[in-house]
Amino acid sequence: MNLPEDRKTVVMVVDDAIDSIRMVNDALEAAGMTVLVALEGNQALTISQNITPDVVLMDALMPHMDGFETCRRLKENPAFTDVPIIFMTGLSDTEHVVMGLNAGGVDYVTKPINTTEMLARMDVHLTNARMTRSARSALDTAGQNLFAVDRGGNLLWSTPQVSRCLPDANHPEYERIQGKLEEWLGHRLEPGHMMPLRIMDTPRSVEYLALVDGREYLLRLKTPQNQNSAAAALRERFQLTLRESDVLLWIANGKTNREIGEILDMSPRTVNKHLEQVFRKLGVENRTAAAAGAIKLLATL
């Protein structure tokens, strides 16, 4: 597991037992890794504000803040989404193993530590984490600003670009955005539906893509430039006026005439008149067919 100097793995070891830290530290440094040491949970949280390690070795039982709570607090930081946390514990009963995994840990090793086994387990989890980060970075490079939330609007994972746009769990904005997402996901959404959402004083929109494994709502974060490009694409493809393209875009987002009128500052009657022209130019008879045609085009952008 020796790595070149410019690719050293950074490991944060969180343990209040000096003898245990010394043994683990020696094994990690011999493997060519950089070691950060925290003697208790709060110190680990302080380190995490400035440095994101590649992996964390976490003692389960510590004074003041145990390893389970420390793990949960670390995982509230979006930067730690893909950082594997491995528990070190003298406890082998099922209850504490489950507590560690539920807190966000990926694995555990029992004390006294078998350093050969520990390094082998770290290698597996580091490889998986790097593959995941690489995939998400590739999505960012391709302009796919994706993230996933649960039914309650809680963030499960995000690509790096989205992580930089969203507030962390301790920010006052987080709860408001979470509530908006929870309410929106309560509707019967179809792929392509979008919701305007102001995030950190920046107007954006969220596009619903799919429900994965019955629990992860896959979403795409869009900027106003994305929305302008979408309207321009509709306008060019179907020879629409500016207002007609705006109406069609919001129809594709699942909005009613009344809601579109409020967004575009026009009466529902005016919206309906624009919609009649949209139907004619698209060669369709109803809003469902118009939305389907728009979503199909927008999916190619």
TrEMBL record:
Transmembrane as UniProt keyword: no
Residue span(s) of domain Response regulatory: 10-126
A Gene Ontology molecular function term of the record: DNA binding
Modified residues (4-aspartylphosphate): D59
InterPro entries: CheY-like_superfamily, Sig_transdc_resp-reg_C-effctor, Sig_transdc_resp-reg_receiver, Tscrpt_reg_LuxR_C, WalR-like, WH-like_DNA-bd_sf
SUPFAM superfamilies recorded: C-terminal effector domain of the bipartite response regulators, CheY-like
Pfam family for this entry, one: Response_reg
Keyword terms of this UniProt record: DNA-binding, Phosphoprotein, Transcription, Transcription regulation, Two-component regulatory system
Record domain HTH luxR-type: where: 233-298
SMART domains xrefs: HTH_LUXR, REC
Record's protein name: DNA-binding response regulator
Native organism: Marinobacter qingdaonensis
